[in-house]
Amino acid sequence: MDHRLLEIVACPSCKGKLNYNKDNNELVCKFDRLAYPIRDSIPVMLTTEARELTSEEVK
Question: Is 1 a residue whose pLDDT tops 80?
């Protein structure tokens, strides 16, 4: 994941900051508790494709 991209990409739902989760290859919005997948090095920034984070993952 290109760290320059992380500086400009935002959560499509709340427009907040996203964090990169290397283990799951996802961009995570802790505010909305959503994780957006990265497929073939391309972030899929659709709320319909995002998965909800568990309460353990939000910590």
Answer: no
